[in-house]
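User: Please predict the structure of the protein below. I'd like the answer in structure-token form so I can feed it into my own downstream comparison script.

Assistant: Understood. Taking the following sequence of 300 residues as input:
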Amino acid sequence: MLAASPFVDRPIGDEASARPLAEALAGRLGLGEPVLLRAAMNATYIAGDVVIRVGRTTVPGHVAYDLAEVLLSAGISVPAPASGHPVEHDGDLTATAWQRIPTVDGGADWRTVGEMVARLHALDPAAVGGYPVPPATSFPWWHFDAMLLRVEPFVDAADLDVLAAAAARVAGWEDSVAREAWVLCHGDVHPHNVVAGPDGPVIVDWDLLCIAPAAWDHAPLRSMVERWGGDPAWCADFAAGAALAGDDEPLVERLVEGRLLAATLMRVIAEGADRSDDSEASRRLRWWRRDPDAPYWSVV
């Protein structure tokens, strides 16, 4: 459904608040103690052959299972819901359970990932039913004027000018493609959201499903290559599978800059004034200053 916010629009916060739901869901499935895999926007746990995700969802958790069935039917490999499709709730916290995908050596086949993303772009957004599908312009971290106001206390004037100049270059990207040409997009296709499974790559984390130009789904992987040290061959393979048109390239470049800007602003806000010269926010700002020795960024 068209919506104002994605499926998850806030971080989990204190992981301790998520654990009771994960434990309750693991107990219902007859599994052992869930082991925390990571905690960011969601808290993700492993319990036997099941992955449990706990997040602050904007709609009931069962719609995520409905989405998975739609995507699987369209030939898009995603984790299947765990047996019984169980859901646990506590206020706005929701826990869902998914079949765990065993990983294989060698990494993901990015051309196949691109082909699956092309199938996603061809889907009618109405096919996802009650799953929220906001326009990409609704994501608050892309509202750069507001974000710049929030970082102003934590950076010097020179850095603020550099970041504001980047925001000006990205501004208006949404007007480059007519709205009727916007498509269903995953919103965050990169190596941390693709599992190399025994039957081929599996795309995970559909929390940022949205409506956007097709180029929107090419920017995350490009960003990983640009600043997190990914393999450039991934991008070429993905673009070939997804049939990226040559005239989409200028928009992809603007969206890459926008993603890197958003990632920097969010990191500066997260660290605030209490950071050292080698903090992650400082590392990212060095790149915006065009420091030739600026290191690759870290995933935090």
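That's the full token string. The chain has two domains: 15-99, 110-288.
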